[in-house]
């Protein structure tokens, strides 16, 4: 049976040369408009000033024709999700975000509603991390402990947002992003990792996965396998991996 899930997973909200979310504006507007969405529920849990973060998103998206409200302004987070057709989970610290999602019993609830086709999911940076199999490949510092590293599992693999290619001429001798991802892939519980470059996003439409945006992505798999995918690549095969 074909999945009914729909999601946009952005590497970040900002990309060099663009204003906030501008690089993804066409994809975001199309995603929401074709599903008849006028109101968007924003989840600012990855940062501590909920009002300020929500206001920043409202300033960008309200002029696009979408009425943004913060989940923290509702009496009950579950009711907030149930009364909206689309949710946008913002970036910040992934560990803090996931902890708050678990505290509010939203992880399973969001997963079920997305899989049923009753909720559109948008995530950026940390909001993308928590949408995947786990947050093992976040770039963030573990400033707080969530009860689990397991994510919402809209997709059955991991993502590394803000992925940076190693520049051969640089003088930095510390670990590269590739090395850190390689360390994760040596673990028995590891799944493939899709490194989303700045300005890229993953479009999830049922059983179809497309890399969109203004940049590509890199797929890391066990056995030191690394594959580059430009924008507009179809990576739907990743949904068939037995890693969920």
From TrEMBL:
- What InterPro entries would the database entry show? Class_I_gatase-like, Peptidase_S51
Under the heading Pfam families, the entry gives:
Peptidase_S51 (PF03575)
> Would the keyword Hydrolase turn up in this protein's UniProt record?
yes
Keyword field: Hydrolase, Protease, Serine protease
Q: Which domain of life is it from?
A: Eukaryota
Q: Does the keyword Zinc apply?
A: no
Protein family according to the UniProt entry: Belongs to the peptidase S51 family.
Question: How is this protein named in the record?
Answer: Alpha-aspartyl dipeptidase
